[in-house]
Amino acid sequence: MRDGAERHHILTVLVENKAGVLARVAGLFSRRGFNIASLAVAPTDDERFSRITIVVDVASAPLEQIVKQLDKLVNVVSISELAPEEATERELLIATVEAGPAERGQIVQLVGIFGAQVVDVGAEAMTVVLAGAPSKVDDFEDLLRSSGIVELQRTGRVALPRLRGRR
Amino acid sequence: MRITGAQALIKSLEMQGVEVVFGLPGGAILPVYDPIIDSPIRHILVRHEQGAGHAAEGYAQVTGRPGVAMVTSGPGATNIVTPLANAYMDSIPLVVVSGQVATGAIGTDAFQECPITGVTMDITKHNWLVTDAEEIPQTIAAAFHVATTGRPGPVLVDVPKDVSNAEMEWYWPGSIEDLDLPGYKPQVEGDPDLVRQAAELVLGACRPVIYAGGGILKARGADALRELAERTGIPVVTTLMARGVLPDSHPLCLGMPGMHGNYTAVTAMQESDLLLAIGSRFDDRVTGKVSAFAPGAKVVHVDIDPAELGKVRVPEVAIAGDARVVMEKLLEVLERAGIGPAGSKPPAGSQAASRPDLSPWIAQLRGYQERFPLAYDRDPGSGALKPQFVVESLRDAAPPGTIVVAGVGQHQMWASQWWHFEEPYTWVNSGGAGTMGYAVPAAIGAKVGRPERTVWAIDGDGCFQMTAQELVTASAERIPVKIAILNNAYLGMVRQWQEMFYEERYSEVYLSPDLPDYVKWAEAMGCVGLKVESPEEVGPAIDKANSIDDRPVVVDFRTDAFEKVYPMVPAGHSNDDIVVGPSAGEGGR
Ligand SMILES: Cc1ncc(C[n+]2csc(CCOP(=O)(O)OP(=O)(O)O)c2C)c(N)n1
Ligand SMILES: [Mg+2]
After folding, report:
1. What Å distances lie between residue B492 and B407, B408, B441, B463, B585, CA to CA?
2. Fewest Cβ atoms closer than 10 Å to its Cβ: which of A62, B507, B510, B587?
3. Is B432 in a helix, a strand, or coil?
4. pLDDT of B165 higher than 80
């Protein structure tokens, strides 16, 4: 996921909250030969709609084509395309790491530096959570790896346009 | 008024003005077939659901109204997948209603369950699985709205059996807002600034060509096209999907471009400095090798589907809008610049007065037309029956307004090349998908839509064998279509490619001229069957066929198996590599 992060684009797609809509959106990507790097779906404040945040790694010309094709889907209400520099992006990581009594201090320190949280502690492991900019989440993940990861989940990005210029 | 979902469905079709439905019943759609008995809607019982779909498409192509087909769940629904894919490629408004197993059984691999909305997701403009009888009127209204507006296309409405059986309170959606389509917003009006930019390019072009596509027919824009061509003096190529949009006899009509287009149409585009692509989509069968297509041309691309703009070729001016609306606006802008009715002189001092003179360009094209007309060996000596001769004979004997329907293969290309299309909506074929077997059912649908017209299908022997059973439907329903089989005993188009590109290694393309016996087969299906083996028999057989109007006629023309379609741009080559005939070698230049 982190290779070619410069070339990634973020599409936020407002869709009708109806059965099968995610399949239509995801299916369109495969049909037109695009790879989805990450995808996150959630309801919006209006219960009729959901927002799908899709990260794709592509050159800009074919991206225009996929945006136009997406726009043709009857259940797609609107699409906005965010260049990474114009977006505030966040991602959530949740990981269970090997941590016996001897290693706990080290992990807790890392958690402190990154502003993460310890959400569960067992005899030989602990579970930590970090929400942050994707690059920060990448760094955190790398450092956790050296401690030994039991299980790890990332949500994929969600994003909104930056407010630059707006007051 | 409380009625069942099934009754609501049929009533909704009536509200939409549907006059005919092509279909075949089965378990899951049974409830919907019951109220058909009491409905003024004519139901035509096909012999295979593929026939229902293609008949509905043929009906839509000649009438401009949506075609409607109805099928049962599972295999009934999968049998209509090919027509849906075909309608998607050719932008044909097609509404398919399919039965589905009861909602409680969905997902259990129930008898005749098939997730047809999933199967057809990528080949429909949209589809719906109805889960509540209350939704039926709204969904049917939405389905017709989506199928017929914007870029037309196929839709499918899947109706579970329990939903059809359930009762609901009848209503009919009053307006488009009631259809609950918040994401559906076709762009019809072209951006006026872009139209002005297009006009500037028109006024400055020395070698312009209008590249007219099927979208103009969909937009009912033939009159606007004619006006545009005549006022500006710009010649027009009519793609396979647009044959007839400007009469072939019109002095500005150059005919069909593309892989089997004529030399002048292909070369005019190659040498043009401005292509006005209207309702056309730069299909690979038109462009040849894209990087070598019309290399010196600026492009104005008008299409109602924004996704077509820049998909293949990046235009200088990209106008998202309805072809007719945009052409009318362009005409207004041009009028203000001094381009008046055809033949009128631009006022002195107007922008049009200083427009480049197109006559050298037109003269150049006339030269091509004289040097490289469409041709075939009219006097082969061997006595072989040339398929092009059959098409010409059919054409010359056809009553005015005859509708021609084709299958897919060599015969399709000969029909498109050698017929003279004088009216829009008189040519029905499968362009984008190239669906063998299209002709017989599509001809039936065309005849149902235009019963006053003669309908001739020009079919291949291979194609005919794929859907011939629908002639039983035609006989039973008294739909007197005429089928000319150009029987070359081969899957001829494939044979041609094997001859030209696979060193004459013929692999699985031979069919046999007389297995099946087409005359007997025709007769068994309630048709008149005729056989023609020599050029002398052609005229009398066609006259006989034209005189029969109470049943379908099938004429088995035993044509020359070795004839090839020319001109030809080999696949993947530049259009400059056009080969005009068997003896021309590297082509005209
Ligand atoms: C359903 C389908 N299968 C295969 C093909 C590939 N194909 C294109 S043309 C052709 C031959 C058609 O044979 P026939 O109907 O006899 O027409 P001819 O070319 O001989 O005129 C074939 C097999 C196709 N277009 N459609
Ligand atoms: Mg054949």
Report:
1. 12, 10, 21, 10, 21
2. B507
3. coil
4. yes
The pLDDT-based confidence of B588 (bands split at 50, 70, 90) is very low
Instruction: Tell which of A82, A105, A124 closes a domain.
Output: A82
Any domain includes A167: no
Confidence of residue B277 (pLDDT cuts 50, 70, 90): very high
Contact call for residues B280 and B211 (beta carbons, < 8 A): yes
Integer angstrom CA distances of residue B360 from B171, B183, B201, B301, B366? 63, 49, 18, 25, 10
Give yes or no for a cis peptide into B516 (omega within 30° of 0). yes
- What six digits make up the tokens of B64? 């401009």
Higher-confidence residue: B588 or B408? B408
CB B141 within 8 A of CB B112: no
Nearest-CA distance B142 → chain A (Å): 11
Strands A8-16 and A49-57: antiparallel
CATH number at residue A72: 3.30.70.260
* Ligand that comes closest to the CA of residue B409: 1
Q: What is the CATH number of the domain that holds B514?
A: 3.40.50.970
pLDDT at A82 (0 to 100): 86
**pLDDT higher than threshold 60 for residue A3:** no
My answer on whether A46 and A109 are in the same domain is no
Which residue in A72, A76, A79 has the most chain B C-beta atoms within 10 A of its own C-beta, making it the best mutation to test that interface?
A72
Binary contact (A76, B307; C-beta < 8 A): no
Q: Which residues of B462-474 are buried (b: 16+ CB within 10 A; e: fewer)?
A: bbbbbbbbbbbbb
For B357-403, what is each residue's pLDDT tens digit? 999 999 999 999 999 999 999 998 889 999 999 999 999 999 999 99
Report CB contact under 8 Å: A65, B311: yes
Q: What residues make up the domain containing B423?
A: 387-565
Residues from B in contact with A at Cβ < 8 Å:
117-118, 121-122, 125-126, 129, 146, 181-184, 305-307, 309-311
Q: Which of B49, B120, B42 is nearest to B441 (CA)?
A: B49
pLDDT(A1) > 50: no
Q: Is residue A145 part of a domain?
A: yes
- B383: CB partners within 8 A, 6+ apart: B534, B535
DSSP A108-140: HHHHHHHT-EEEEE-SSEEEEEEEE-HHHHHHH
Q: Which bin fits B24, alpha (ψ -120 to 50), beta or left (φ > 0)? A: beta
pLDDT computed for residue A112 by the predictor = 97
Test B307 with A15 for CB contact under 8 angstroms. Answer: no
Q: How many domains does chain A have?
A: 2
Q: CB neighbours of B3 closer than 8 A, spacing ≥ 6? A: B11, B167, B168, B170
Q: How many residues in total does chain A contain?
A: 167
Task: Say how many Å lie between the CA of residue A74 and the centre of ligand 1.
Answer: 34
- What's the pTM value of the predicted model, to 2 decimals? 0.95
